[in-house]
Amino acid sequence: MDIRPPSIETANIEWRDGVPCSTRFADVYFSRDDGLEEARHGFIGHNRLADRFSRVPAGSAFVIAETGFGTGLNFLAAWQTWEASNPGDNACLHFISAERYPLDRNDLSQALSLWPELENYAAELLEHYPPPVQGAHRLVLAGGRIRLTLFFGDVLEAWRELDFQADAWFLDGFVPARNPRMWDEAAITALRKHSRPGTTIATATSAGDVRRLLVNAGFSLWETPGFGSRPEMLAGELPMAPDVPARECSTSSRSIAIIGAGVAGSLLARNLAERGLEVTLIDKASDAGTAASGNYQGALYVKLGVEFNDQAKLGLSSLLFSQRYYAQSGSDCWHPTGLIQLAYSDVEADRQARFTARNDYPSAVLRSVDATEATRLAGIPLQSGGLWFPHSGWLEPGRLCRSLASHPRIHRCFGFDVHRLTPCNGKWHIAGNGEQDVVADRVVICAGHLSPKLIPLRNEFRFRTIRGQVSHLPASSLNNPAVVLCGPGYINPAYKGIALTGASFDLHDHSPGLSAESHRENLSMLTSMVPAALNSAAEQPDPALLEGKVGFRCTTHDYQPVAGPLTDPAGRPLEGIDLFTGLGSKGLSYAPLLAEYLADRITDQPQCLPASLARRVATQRCHKREIPQSETIGV
Q1: Taking phi first (over 0 means left), then psi (-120 to 50 degrees means alpha), and beta for anything else, what does residue 591 get?
Q2: Same domain as 355, residue 418
């Protein structure tokens, strides 16, 4: 079957005697006797998970990795056991699973409906289950107590791309004779690289080749009775090395300071606080979300490239994660109206035609619509069709930031204008405007266009500051669209009597004040993109009288964001300092996933970004010139 990216071929399922069977591998997904008891016997019991879960300390993580997600039954059994075992406060179960042929949502729902006791867990999984597109998908479940990383693709690619160390392995999947690639030497070697001393392993197969490969990889194995019709199975452990210290995974004692309380900083602060860390959120304004993140409305969208390269992969991953995040945590700040990316010109229409010819996105992500359907969706006349994103919409960014910053473990240090960061005795000292220094073990710079001035390196960086002005249009002057419409700019549905449009793109204007000329440019853009947007029967907006807001975007030379440890030009990380900026005009889309990624790194938990995308956002690429080591400032 010819499947164009980013879609991935889903499983072909037949139901036999009430059990799902793979037609591709001619094997069942779980035992006809009782699939849930099979999971408990084989994977939960032989990895001793109930006891090990109960001893996970506060603020720590336990990591299970699995070959073959299938129906998700093993995952739900582990989730149920985790909840019943009472691990420490703010502890997290990470479950990482690779699946080459994922079930579609309907088959998954039918399979999991067989176990009413798992109904609540299954419902949450189904609510967040990603569309069938290639790559890594991070699902945050149970209020953050469970983090599922689903990799849709080949198992070897998954283990090459994902950064984690497992505490326990579920070696599932169809029998080796029918699915040899999952059990070959390369797969077992990769498995070993993701295992730490003491990692346990369980598998329903007892095939001699599998046993030999695991033993050669260093695992101690033993046979044990199987479940149902299987007479035996294998369990094992990677022996502890005498000179390897016990793993310390709790981070609750470490202090984190985040400079900048916009969308990026507020999301990261909340993410870390919910993992149990104490966070100091610093901003020179009097509250969170007042600068570029303080717009009344903001559209959630990315512009996906014609070629499905790493840039498009990052955009898609960010969009899907942000849609899930805001639906789950956006409260009443999130308005999922849907969004149309208009084919507003001949050039854009040609680009979208090439985009749809070379890519195959599931309709749950996006689909092409003609002008007639676009008009129906928008509720106002449109001259062109475009790309319809049914799960996008718009947010109230400033309100969202203030909501995120309200948490008992987030200490808000507002009205603090940071002047200097200085390393001293293994900590960072953050000096402000005459205030007492803030001292932290780790600092993250999330200060938007002000970030380059705070970076403690004597170097130049490839960042640009771009002024953007949005215009607030009275609803009475509009033919109000029911969805977000975007192209060279965007127009949001009116809310509380106002609709936001813009934003201007001013490379050489650094004035913070509102400009009638920028308002005029926004109105010109809007009427060119959506001629019917303004109500001809109403008084036309006067650019000189319009309200609005000016913000300054921070962009990089390649228009890709920056998130990760701050490095010198040679790639050496500075101890205890990270950079999170350069999100440009797509901060609402990029920030949730990159905040998750940075929180993973800071807490030393499995990372949600695959290696290829982590490189895409690395800080080193933004250095402008190489400098001698003597000019760096390190701890």
Answers
A1: alpha
A2: no
Which CATH number characterizes residue 600's domain?
3.50.50.60
β 410-414/334-335 pair status: unpaired
Using alpha carbons, select from 60, 444, 446, 441 the residue that is nearest to residue 255: 441
Contact 246, 52 (CB under 8 A): no
Whether 393 has a pLDDT exceeding 50, the answer reads yes
Distances (CA, A) of 195 to 63, 164, 167, 604: 10, 8, 7, 15
148: pLDDT strictly greater than 60:
yes
Per the CB < 8 A criterion, the answer to whether 78 and 49 are in contact is yes
User: Could you tell me the pLDDT band of residue 243, with boundaries at 50, 70 and 90?
Assistant: low
Helix, strand, coil share (%) of the chain residues, nearest 5: 35, 30, 40
| In-domain check, residue 418 | yes
DSSP class per residue in 390-430: TT-EEE-HHHHHHHHH--TTEEEEES----EEEEETTEEEE
Assigned token pair, 11: 């499983």
**Residues 133 and 271 grouped into a single domain:** no
> Looking at 499, 527, 556, which one is the last position of a domain?
556
What DSSP state is assigned to residue 44?
Answer: I
Q: How many domains does the chain have?
A: 3
What confidence tens digit (pLDDT) does each residue in 485-521 have?
Answer: 999 999 999 999 999 998 998 888 889 999 999 999 9
Q: What is the pLDDT of residues 202-220, one digit of tens each?
A: 998 878 888 999 999 999 9
| Mean pLDDT in residue range 435-456 | 94
| Buried/exposed code over 158-172 (b: 16+ C-beta within 10 A; e: otherwise) | bbebbebbbbbbbbb
pLDDT of residue 630: 45
CATH code of 480's domain: 3.30.9.10
**Confidence grade of residue 177 (pLDDT, cut at 50, 70, 90):** low
